Amino acid sequence: MVQKYQSPVRVYKHPFELIMAAYERRFPTCPLIPMFVASDTVNEYKSEDEAIHVIERRCKLDIDAPRLLKKIAGVDYVYFVQKNSLNRRERTLHIEAYNETFSNRVIINEHCCYTVHPDNEDWTCFEQSASLDIKSFFGFESTVEKIAMKQYTSNIKKGKEIIEYYLKQLEEEGITFVPRWTPPVACKLESSTSHTRRPVSPAINIPDSATKEGLNNKEILNTSSSPSEPTAGTPDDKLDADYIKRYLGDLTPMQESCLIRLRQWLQETHKGKIPKDEHILRFLRARDFNIDKAREILCQSLTWRKQHQVDYILDTWNPPQVLQDYYAGGWHHHDKDGRPLYVLRLGQMDTKGLVRALGEEALLRYVLSINEEGLRRCEENTKVFGRPISSWTCLVDLEGLNMRHLWRPGVKALLRIIEVVEANYPETLGRLLILRAPRVFPVLWTLVSPFIDDNTRKKFLIYAGNDYQGPGGLLDYIDKEIIPDFLGGECMCEVPEGGLVPKSLYRTAEELENEDIKLWTETIYQSASVFKGAPHEVLIQIVDASSVITWDFDVCKGDIVFNIFHSKRAPQPPKKDSLGAHSITSPGGNNVQLIDKVWQLGRDYSMVESPLICKEGESVQGSHVTRWPGFYILQWKFHNMPACATTNLPRVDDVLASLQVSSHKCKVMYYTEVIGSEDFRGSMTSLESSHSGFSQLSAATTSSSQSHSSSMISRWRFC
Questions:
Q1: Which residues on neighbouring strands pair with residue 464, listed in sequence order?
Q2: Are 440 and 402 in contact (CB under 8 A)?
Q3: I need a labelling partner for 253 at 20 to 30 A (CA). Which of 196, 197, 378, 498 fits?
């Protein structure tokens, strides 16, 4: 497996020429990098006007590896080849490095780039990336990989320190400014009539980059520069190292790399707005920075947010008055770490009354709104305190908790809420303070704890009786001035006191069921089930040619094939598949089939677009400009995995999949719209304007064939 690393953009608040002067001092050896033993120049080129300087070095490294491993490998040192390409005219330095030793067993590629800051020409940007591919290494592949990544991480950390060390050295020598390159006088005269002066290039986004560089420039003057502060924020396609530290916290180089790579992947695969960096980072932390696992749960969460329009819940949903009166919870200042503090008086809350009066869905939606408000408060506190605040503290007062709180439907609702919150708001709970836990609490804890993530459980602090008032209690986490009055503090807490919900507000099971449907179908999307041999089909009648059919769908489960057909005659009234042949019931999502079994492709209906294979987790948007009036059928069909190309035998994966009933069921969530020909101007702008109602967050593609799918979608938009 290829290990990859991508650095954030590191900004030096010094001109490019001064940075190059400092970097030149790293060669032929650098005392700050003990493993860098020596380097020899093997090739060098300078242009006549000295604007271009290319130098190739052979670097000797003493890798920190076990002596036994070195003895088995038969080497004491490892050699790398590094090529530095300095362009003084463009003010850029590109570096490429690769390993010479064991190149047939291990492939290491490293790329670096120094450029001028796009917003401040007196600053310099640096970014790098690398890849490691271990083919074989005497059975020590895992050990070599760990050594390589450890060594590389250590060197990355030292990178900025080394440059700053040599900058200080230059300053002590009285060198604080290096003039920019200017063309020789003769060149100026010759070129004055042929072209104008070239402007300074902006920073170039290099796909990959390495770690060593060099420069020759002798004319140095004693001056000083004081560049202005940059505007807040980062470029759309990059992350600045200072920005990461200020808004996201201290991350190791590998953690920074994981964040940048997952963010880039989302930018490449998502059509709409991507999550904020803080949000992405929470999912990475929840999976210990395993990119594949984090990407999987993040994509599932994005689909969920899109389906239930969670992004708009704070602006579009008003909690019922019952919740405002009887839900004993609310926000209350912040803890000593600057985290927003949420107070919940669970013991004073009538959980049974709330469930009977509102149903599970309303409670769930209210909890979602609390979490969304928590995310918003974290952003605000980050700005107020000048440091990253990515989670909140929850204080739960259990005084009054008794057996009525263990009412089965209430516990069921609590477990469901925990499950949803755990899946979609990971790493948002910084600390949970449980106060005045009664004797019945262990029973509730036994029921609930298995559904709580291990990392989350470690953040729980439980106090029985008045233990929270002693050493190691509440005062260790919350300032005395904001301890709520009901806990013996002096601060008035505006959290509702709860109490019993009047039975006159209770609703019947039928009313609650209808209310649940109303709450959770406030979405422009519909869900459908797709089975093997039973596709789901949607009929669209087109009266005017050149109308535009648009679609937006998410593949929630399984792999499907998306088709578009045209027919001059209307299909029979849609029939829902009984699924009896599949022995599968479909409690969620409908299945409608329109194309009659006796219809023949090419005679009764025709295919107007090439089939598109869509993998589980993909989000697909596209459009089709109709050529004829009539009936168009959008079809989502079960995708049968092809057998191995080199044999007629089925693949092992296919055999295993065929043994699983669930593998014969796919689920999609879709939305379609028709734009009249008079509203369509044949441009992408008009198409995009028609998507204004789409969710800002869409699910992501996890398929390796994403580039193919994207091109198909793009092609469909212009067909």
A1: 437
A2: yes
A3: 378
Residue 704 pLDDT > 90? no
- Check pLDDT > 90 for residue 113: yes
Q: Environment class of residue 98 by beta-carbon count within 10 Å: exposed (0-12), middle (13-18) or buried (19+)?
A: middle
Phi, psi of 609 (to 5 degrees): -140, 150
Tokens read off for 516: 């649940």
Alpha helices in 359-479 (DSSP H): 360-385, 408-424, 441-448, 454-457
Contact assessment for residue 88 and residue 113, using Cβ atoms and an 8 Å cutoff:
no
Sign, CA dihedral 251-254-255-261, equals positive
**φ/ψ of residue 251, rounded to 5:** -120, 150
Q: How far apart are alpha carbons 605 and 608 in whole angstroms?
A: 10
Give tens-digit pLDDT for 457-473.
888 998 988 888 888 88
Count of beta carbons in the 10 Å neighbourhood of residue 673: 16
Average pLDDT, the chain: 77
What mean pLDDT do residues 227-254 have? 65
CA dihedral of 367, 371, 376, 382, whole degrees rounded to 10: 150
State the pLDDT at residue 271.
Answer: 66
Rounded to whole angstroms, the Cα distance separating 37 from 17 reads 26
Helix (H) or strand (E) holding 536: strand 536-542
CA distance 110 to 83: 11
Place of tokens 């590629």: 109
d(CA 454, CA 242): 32
User: By mean pLDDT, which of 244-258, 439-453, 458-472, 569-583 is the weakest?
Assistant: 569-583
Counting beta carbons within 10 angstroms of the beta carbon of residue 6, is it exposed (0 to 12), middle (13 to 18) or buried (19 or more)?
buried
Distance separating alpha carbons of residues 51 and 216, to the nearest angstrom: 11
Q: Tokens for 198?
A: 């070239």
Residue 124: which of 33, 257, 15 has the closest Cα? 15
CA-CA distance, 95 to 56, in Å (whole number)?
10
DSSP states of 542-568: ESSTT-EEEEEEEEEES-EEEEEEEES
Helices marked H in 202-252 = 241-243
Cα 129 from Cα 4, distance rounded (Å): 7
Query: Residue 661 has what pLDDT?
Result: 39
Half-sphere exposure of residue 709: CA atoms within 13 angstroms, side-chain side: 24
Please state, in angstroms and rounded to a whole number, the distance separating the CA atoms of residues 453 and 412.
Answer: 18
DSSP secondary structure letter of residue 244: I
CB 625 within 8 A of CB 719: yes
Cα separation, 324 vs 326, whole angstroms: 6
The residue with tokens 């808004």 is 247
State the Cα–Cα distance between residues 76 and 60, nearest whole angstrom: 10
Q: What is the DSSP string of 385-404?
A: HTS----EEEEEE-TT--GG
The Cα–Cα gap between 367 and 594 comes to 41
Place of tokens 């796009």: 118
Reported as a pLDDT band with limits 50, 70 and 90, residue 476 is very high
Average pLDDT on 556-562 reads 89
| Residues 212-238 pLDDT 10s | 333 333 332 233 333 333 333 344 456
Where do the H-state alpha helices sit in 637-705? 652-658, 684-689
**C-alpha distances out from residue 694 to 8, 350, 524, Å:** 32, 38, 8
Q: Where are the alpha helices (DSSP H) in 135-212?
A: 141-172, 185-191
Q: Phi/psi at 693 (nearest 5 deg)? A: -85, -5
Find the radius of gyration of the CA atoms of the chain: 31
